[in-house]
Amino acid sequence: MAITILNRALLRADTSAEETAKVWSALREAGIEYEVLTKHNSGATSINSGRLGHSKDLINSMWGGQYYGDTYSYEIWVKKKDLERAKEIMNGAFRLE
């Protein structure tokens, strides 16, 4: 059975691709089905930054703002029935460091 909106639970949300990869790698190794959703978050002072392109510099120079860049956040979803086991595996992945 696939992961759907009705049977999924959020295991972790993070802005670090590296930390997210540690978790999904451990889940994959343990045979737990997961889904990673990537969300684009526009820069702090840009208006629709992904669509403006080079005009970010113009906006920042006009208003004296600082462009912090676009960021991404990552959500790892698992089946509700696997949530507790997935938490144990995730915690173990960070203890291995």
Query: What top-tier CATH class fits best?
Result: Alpha Beta
Distance between the termini: 33 Å
What gross morphology would you assign?
Answer: globular
Write out the CATH superfamily name. HD domain like
CATH topology: Alpha-Beta Plaits
Q: What is the count of distinct domains?
A: 1
With helices defined by DSSP (H or I, 4 residues minimum), what is the helix count?
4
Approximate helicity band: 40-55%
> Would you report the number of β strands?
3
Based on the model shown, name its key terms:
97 residues, 41% helix, Alpha-Beta Plaits, alpha+beta, 3-stranded antiparallel beta sheet, 25% strand
Question: In terms of topology, how is this protein built?
Answer:
Elements: E1 8-14, H1 17-30, E2 34-41, H2 49-52, H3 55-63, E3 71-79, H4 83-95
Antiparallel strand pairs: 1-3, 2-3
Helix pairs in contact: 1-4
What does this structure look like?
The chain has 97 residues and is of the alpha+beta class. 41% of the residues lie in helices and 25% in strands. It has one domain: HD domain like (Alpha-Beta Plaits, 2-Layer Sandwich), CATH 3.30.70. Strands 1-3-2 form a 3-stranded antiparallel sheet. Helix 1 packs across helix 4. It is globular and about 35 Å long.
